[in-house]
Design a protein that fits this description.
Number of strands: 14
Largest sheet: 6 strands, mixed
Number of domains: 2
Distance between the termini: 45 Å
Strand content: 5-15%
Radius of gyration: 24 Å
Length: about 550
């Protein structure tokens, strides 16, 4: 775990956490247990998982089992340091009965070609695995993980020729069999995880779903945010994120949209604040480069002339902006119109090369350096450098003021711009699903044929001066921003806002909460209990009862 905190501050934090949870949970002899992963190096991620897990344990008495560990390829791709010993100490302070170093268990068998552990035991009991993962699903996880840890847009055409791919496949098989035993062969209450993709996270989610174990997915933004999928609401037809898309769409329609008049003023405030807020979604940018000060069409027109000239564009002609996604970021994690994120971007650029009646701005993802080692964006740009109506640039080359002033139509897969742009009256086409894609903010397409038709129709409408976004879509987008940033962002002293950093400040803040703020005043417990007992797909700051199906 990456911490970088003063040793005395860290020790004081552990002592306070240990006392707090011992008093709030007590001891339990229950044979049931709740599984929490701590595979991320950032302590803020661990805090979110452990806080939610312990809130559930107040409802359902259970022991706490923490799964952790680090593997060489993951370490090389992402982490600066990862100390399992620190994870063990933090887990103990939060009341864990068992801390399992996953990679210490599975790496030996994987290298020896053994597909599963000979025996899995917990608390002195042998765990019997549930039904195994399908080969197709296993291959999807292996491919996605390979892309992520090698930072490549696609898996190799012949995976057997790459020893790294073979290693990932061997690891995934053993990891999946272990999770099948841990989550499918015992009295597991829930899985709490910070991620739902790739091998050590996603395979746990897959095992839990097949075993009928609830999955709670915490988020790395804001204060405390979490989504949940329960066996009774899981159709099994989609990925975790796909199921969530449907359920959030329904929740928005029944619990949020009917309240639009009631929360309109707050939604307008959140829409304004989101222009300068680093918390996601905000195209991963904060500060001056994320600021949008445009308040009316006249101001937008003046800025448009300036920024269009900088790009070499004619401000009088329509401009379509294509927002490249992080190319190795969980490909296939939700429904996509194209086989890979790279296919979508390349095919869109090819389409744009002959669509000369409009101008095209291709923006790379601000954090692409964390996801691509191949120069994918640059290679596509080079293929089209002769086309003067197409401009490729990194996102930091243009401020949000500039970007928002020139874009007439946004095109993306599942990126956050698909809810940001509509909030400011700019239409968006999504070539894939996102959390909000069933909330009526954008034009969502499901396959390439529909995608090309939507692009053609939108370009024709732009050329004819037609409006591509309705007033209702703008209101829905602003309401979604309120829902995401306010209604589902739980303020609890146990989990300070993501921006509370460095580590000494964070630990001192949480230690103060553990020592001096009474637990019956902490909204964490009430909110988690509401989500858990009502089987709601999202943690909410306030009660949002059903008011009707007006959509």
């Amino acid at each position: 775990m990456w911490l970088g905190a003063d040793k005395k501050e860290f020790e004081a934090f552990l002592d306070s956490a240990s006392v707090y949870w011992r008093k709030n949970l007590g001891s339990t002899a229950s044979p049931r247990y709740l599984v929490v992963e701590v595979f991320h190096q950032d302590i803020r991620v661990a805090m979110r998982n452990l806080a939610v897990a312990n809130a559930i344990r107040r409802i359902v008495p259970a022991q706490l089992v923490v799964v952790t560990g680090v593997e060489a390829m993951w370490h090389e791709a992402l982490w600066t340091e990862f100390d399992v010993t620190l994870v063990e100490r933090i887990a103990a302070a939060y009341g864990a009965s068992e801390v399992i170093d996953l990679y210490r268990l599975v790496e030996g068998p994987a290298r020896a070609g053994i597909p599963h552990l000979p025996s899995v035991q917990l608390f002195g009991r042998r765990l019997v695995p549930g039904a195994p993962i399908s080969e197709e699903t296993l291959d999807e996880f292996v491919s996605a993980t390979y892309c992520r840890v090698t930072k490549r847009p696609r898996a190799p055409e012949n995976p057997t020729t790459d020893p790294r791919y073979r290693h990932r496949a061997a690891l995934a098989r053993v990891i999946s069999s272990y999770y099948d035993a841990l989550l499918g062969g015992g009295p597991a209450v829930a899985l709490v995880t910070s991620h739902v993709d790739y091998d050590h996270w996603g395979l746990a989610v897959d095992s839990a779903r097949r075993a009928g174990v609830p999955v709670v997915h915490t988020q790395q933004t804001g204060c405390l945010k979490a989504y949940a999928l329960y066996p009774e609401t899981d159709t099994g037809e989609h990925t975790f994120r796909g199921e969530l898309t449907h359920q959030l769409g329904e929740f928005f329609a029944r619990r949020v949209w009917p309240r639009r008049a009631e929360v309109r003023r707050n939604a307008e405030l959140v829409a304004w604040r989101s222009k300068v807020n680093l918390g996601r979604p905000s195209w991963w940018r904060g500060g001056a480069s994320a600021s949008v000060d445009i308040t009316n069409s006249a101001e937008r027109a003046r800025l448009r002339t300036h920024f269009a000239a900088r790009l070499g564009f004619d401000p009088a002609r329509p401009i379509v902006a294509v927002f490249n996604h992080a190319v190795s970021d969980a490909p296939g994690t939700n429904h996509q119109s194209f086989p890979t994120l790279a296919d979508w971007f390349e095919e869109t650029a090819r389409f744009a090369s002959s669509a000369t009646e409009v101008q095209w701005l291709f923006q790379d993802h601000p954090s692409q350096f964390r996801y691509d080692s191949t120069g994918f964006f640059e290679s596509v740009a080079r293929r089209h450098e002769r086309h003067r109506h197409m401009v490729f640039q990194t996102s930091k080359e243009l401020s949000k003021n500039g970007l928002w002033s020139v874009v007439d139509l946004g095109v993306t897969v599942r990126g956050s711009v698909s809810n940001e742009l509509p909030a400011y009256g700019i239409p968006v086409i999504q070539a894939g699903w996102s959390e909000w894609s069933e909330c009526g903010l954008s034009t969502v397409v499901h396959d390439p044929e529909t995608y090309w038709k939507a692009l053609d129709a939108s370009i024709s409408a732009l050329l004819n001066g037609e409006e591509l976004i309705s007033a209702e879509q703008v209101e829905r987008a602003r309401l979604w921003l309120w829902f995401y940033r306010s209604a589902t962002d739980l303020f609890t002293p146990q989990v300070p806002h993501w921006e509370v950093w460095p580590a000494d400040y964070l630990l001192r803040t949480v230690r103060t909460a553990f020592r001096h703020i009474e637990s019956d005043a902490d909204p964490l417990f009430e909110a988690v209990e509401r989500m858990w007992t009502r089987r709601e797909p999202v943690l909410t700051r306030m009660d949002l009862p059903v008011t009707g199906g007006d959509r």
